[in-house]
Amino acid sequence: MMADIRCQMCGKISSDELEICPFCQARLTPLKKPSSDDTTVDGINGMGADDINSEAAEKSSGADSERLDFMPEDDLGIPTNSAEIEVKEWLAGLDQEGNDLGDQQGSRSVASSDSFTDKTDDNWLSRFKQEGITSSDNVKPERDNQDVNLEKDLEGWLRDFKNGADSGDQPLNLQDSDLNFEGQDSDDDWLGRLQPDVESQLNGSNSESFIKPGDSSGGVGDSQDSTRDPISESSFEDIETPTWIQNIQAETQGLADDAQSDESTTPDWMSDLEPGSDLLDNGSDSDERELPAWLREIGSDSLDFSDTVDSKSLPLEKDAFDSIEGSDIRVDESSLRKGLVLGDDLDQETDESFNRTESPEPYASDSDLLTDEPTDEKSQVEQSEKVEVDQTLDKMDDIGSIDTISKTSQSSELDDGMIDDISGELETIDLPEWLKEIKTDDSAQVDELMDAEAAKKLDDIPKGELPEWIQEMQPVESMLSQEDTIDEKLNEFVESSGPLAGLSGVLPPADGIKSQHQTTSHPETPILTGEQDQQVELFKQILNSESEPISTHKKVRKSSSRVLRWLVTILMISAVILPAIIGFPISIPASNYPPELIQTRQVLFGLPADSPVLMIFDYGPAYSTELEASSSSIVGELINSNVPLVFISTSPTGIALADHFMEIVKSHRTLLIEPRIIKLGYLPGDIQGIASFASNPSHTLPFTTGGTRAWETQELRNVSDLSDFSAVFLLTENPDTARVWVEQAGRYLGGTPILVAASAQAEPMIRPYYESKQIDGLVTGLAGGKAYEQMLETSGLSGSYWNSFRSGLFMIEVIIIIGGLWSFLGSLRVRKLERKEEV
Amino acid sequence: MVLNTSMEFASAVISFLFTIMILSYLVGDNPFFRLAIYVFVGVSAGYAASIAWQNILWPKLFSPLIFDNPQQSLLLWIPLFMGLLLLTKLFPRLSRVGNPVMAFLVGIGAAVAIGGAVLGTIIPQTMASINLFDLSSDGNLLEKVFESVVFIIGTISTLAFFQYSAKKTTQGIKRGRIVELLAWLGRIFIAVTFGVIFAGVLTAALTALIDRIMFIWSFILSLI
């Protein structure tokens, strides 16, 4: 029956037959051959010492043994005892693993792979250190997307690391490795004594936090990365080295001295680890110098293991747990877990526990970044291995956060006595000389290289590559510090002036404003010199003169115009009244009769009797005197000729003026017969009414002003059209009215003559119609009426006004001439003045 | 003038007072002058309204609608309705309702005016201008030629005066020299024409002044 397995990277379920996750291309199973004895344990809680030992034994006897075959014995030059052979084989496996990873990780690992493939170059440990640092640096930007909480937990992790260091975790790992390196025959017992305590610790602890691999490596790796968590560095500084660790340091220092004295025992590949080796190019940060030398060594070694060591290439764990099995030493779960990290980075059992403890999303994201379009199967395998290595790094980092939870409960359970026992056992361990040399060399070599490489590394890192979480933290910290500073300033500031005086916490003015507004004292009254006083007085005078109003009203001109107005009025009234009082006659010579007046006379004399004449009164009351004076004699003559008169007007007041006209005629003219007058009244509609009346008079104005049917009267019985009238006599002062009548009625008149009695002001505009013979007769103004009366040798209204009219015209002419001369002389005087001014 | 009746005396007194009030404008604008103006305007408007009702609306619209046969006066409802619509022009909100009637009146008036202008003014005046050069007509030939020359010069120069087309030159926008000369002549003719019109207005006003002065003189003499 097929079972499902959960991907460690993306968290998705896949078949256990698959080695590579179909979703994220990550390896689902560890790189080892499954064996019949390899039983799946759900958690580390269920994993007994036997299981661990058997698993470690398989690792060492399985694939790892094959890898160790790659390590040439001649190059190593290691003594051929059993322990050294194991170390040789295991290191050979690491070398091969490093080659594999170097091939997969591109340019970053090219140098490393080259170094690994170089059989003559045996400084594989320093290369691991370099590889680990390099890989961690390269992977680090990819892990920047992890949750911020994970980063915050780093500090807690460091506390756990401290506890772990106090409890001997890290030295235990090292010692475990050292023990295995040196030989397990003599030290199996002390590790075996740890088993009961380990079981008790495992049973009483949280399995989820316990089983996280890569604890020590991740922790040390993080401590080496100063850019990842600078806060954790301070935690390292605060670590108090326990006594058993100090003993180990002293012992390793002594061993290092012995190793320096006996360099002939150092293998060739170890000689590259001497100070000045170029292979240790990727040193750690400068902060790492503050750590003990052995701790930096552990960190670098652990990181190298985590980056490069495959689960199948760890005989150390097998040996370590074999030794633990038979010992009574109580081992802290974290140290055991770190040992697992060194030996087996990802077992399936522990992976399940990991999946229960943390979200797979960060891994999925990392795997997405790392798996870019695999082209073939080989590349997929390489990619999966690469992902696996990066996954190990990620989990090493994540261990910090998980340890924060687990270590807080576990570290308190550490027994000082147990630590003393472990340290006592560790002191008895004899390290091989080559390992002692490594330690002694690293203590001085790493310090020097770290400084140079850290400075170089810092220079190489561009600022733009800083992780986002660091960039996000910086402004927050700065803001917090600023806010605290501002709050303190606000609380300290007490307002000393103004309405807020005595209040604290008032916003003070900005420092820049304060400094800019520092004023100096000036005297209240300026000190002026004599010249400045004069200028001030002059300026005041100018201002006063500007503020004074300037009178633009010329009274002289107004008085003169008023006098002139009264003078003209008196002259005109005198000119009008005097002739009427004196009464001297002024006649018009007969030769000066205008032709239009003569023609009018001819038309009137040719009118047949009893033929109605249409009289149109289209003038205003103001011109009634002029038109009455000019036409009264004509109308009187028509009345005496017994011609019926039909009155019509386009003005509402026209009929009233017609009545007044007839009174004037009656009063100034001796009428022989009673006038026959038919008043059609007011003709509305202006031009349309005129056109309508011209086309159909009886339909347009069917009634008289008295309400009777006009066209049924005796006078109009024979009249149906405008042409049926004997004549049309238009009285108007408006040239437009005359034009409209001529235009609209002219085509309906036929042979009917049209006479116009117009005001003098309308004569220039009406005369063209007379010249074009559209008007048969024209009488204009008082002069035309006087001429017509004189022609008829009668007296009328025109005659009574004639003398005044003439004298008034004379006076007007005189005034115009005098005014013209005055204006001319005035212009001459102005010109003379202008010339004088110019001269 | 003899004031025979009290009615004539009253009208003479009113006429005298209103004449004096109008002549008071010699001393400037004053309430008497304004009162006389308002009275004249009001009386004229009232008289016009009464005339419109008495001579137009009642006998030609309402009387037939009321007293005549409805079938015969059926068409009178159309002018009544249009007249009511035209009254809506008094109210801004309803003024749009009267627009069609106003458009009808304006359209009819324009059509009538244009037709009359073309047939009654333009063509006859053009023909009259042409006939001035008919030397075969009666009269003195030299006088006709002189009159014709003056007439044609006056007509062309007056038209040239109202010619506003010009060209851009280095000295600014100016008309041509010939056009400028004709325009200068046309300005003289126009000035003479305005002088004649002013003389006519002056004589018309003088006539009105004589009438009023003679009335005042007569009224004063009648009182004495």
Report on this model:
The complex is a heterodimer of chains A (839) and B (224). With 839 residues, chain A is mainly alpha-helical. In chain A, 60% of the residues lie in helices and 5% in strands. In chain A, helix 6 crosses helix 16, helix 8 packs across helix 18 and helix 33 runs parallel beside helix 34. The termini of chain A are far apart. The radius of gyration of chain B is 28 Å and the shape is extended.
Order of helices and strands of chain B: HHHHHEEH
What percentage of residues of chain A falls in helices of 4 or more residues? 55-70%
What is the total tally of β strands of chain B?
A: 2
User: What characterizes the major β-sheet of chain A?
Assistant: 6 strands, parallel
Give the overall shape of chain B. extended
Q: What is the topology, as strand order, of the major beta sheet of chain A?
A: 5-4-3-6-7-8
Strand content of chain B: under 5%
Question: Top keywords for this entry?
Answer:
heterodimer; A: 839 residues; mainly alpha; two-stranded antiparallel ribbon; 36 helices; B: 224 residues; 3% strand
